[in-house]
Amino acid sequence: MIDRLRRNMDLGDGELAFLMETDERERDLFEAGDAVRRENYGVDVYIRGLIEFTNHCKNDCLYCGIRAGNSRAKRYRLDADRILACCGEGYELGFRTFVLQGGEDPHYTDGMICGIVSEIKRNHGDCAVTLSLGERSFESYRAFFESGADRYLLRHETASDEHYRRLHPRSMSPGSRKRCLWDLKEIGYQVGSGFMVGSPYQTTEDLVSDLRFLQELQPSMIGIGPYLTHKDTPFRDFPNGSLKVCLRLIAILRLMFPYALIPATTALGTIAPDGRELGLSVGANVVMPNLSPVAVRRLYGLYDNKICTGDEAAECRMCLQRRVEAAGYRIAIHRGDVKKAGPRGVAV
Ligand code: 5AD
Ligand code: FES
To answer: Which burial class, exposed, middle or buried, applies to 173 when counting CB atoms under 10 A from its CB (0-12, 13-18, 19+)?
Structure first.
């Protein structure tokens, strides 16, 4: 079954569900994930400097610690100069991609975002800029792209409409999330999407739908991580997602999307001390060390017990380098664009 998945980059729904749920084929699945990542990317691990520039958010996702309804969250915003300073520091540390991530914060107008993006590109012409600011209009996305943004991360969170509605307030809709992803593709971004593993009410069938949606979208980047509880959300009593299922999904994603950029996420590193290394060993090929100022790190609290909140950018960078190398891989110093996807996802 795993050979067939590797050859065809696809399996039937029942077979995919079986691979997610069973222990039995796990070893072979993990080995195949690593083999396919090596075929396409060798031992290279791409790094992205993550700048969490605002934890204000107008949305109220039921799982998220920075939801508008969490009055216990202490809010912050970084101004353009702070963001540019983080990029300057990151450049010295070898980052050639900067990811500007934040809650959905209307304080940052299109003009402000465009100004920040074009200034980063002016200072660091050899770098890629990735935005991750949630849902905006087609026109806003286009303006960001025209001012130099290269990539956009927007997880679909769950492809099942019914499940989406259980995770989000009525003001948010699965249709509008998917519309945004198609808009981003049409404009020309390298698009990243993804989903949480083990979020409340999620079934294995929902996870199969996530894979099917990604097959339609054909994103360049796919970010997944376990759902993690935050004590100040309505989902406080739901358990964390499973490390094992998350690792199986990373391996499955690698076999279905051989070319994709798949991060070993902070959530994976939070659920287990060696979670990110395990992610790399089954098919992930990206890590995203934190470049945010230490003073605000703790405040970007999507979930409890988030790692790396006390470390300076340089410490995070070196810590990850050690971890990547100990796991048998090597950090690559360049923009780390996706290898172009051919028909049916074959790297060319
Ligand atoms: N646990 C795990 N991941 C979360 N995210 C948000 N809240 C949580 C949580 N409680 C993820 C979402 C979002 C990304 C930035 O972080 O998938 O898209
Ligand atoms: Fe901010 Fe969900 S709470 S996007």
So the answer is: middle
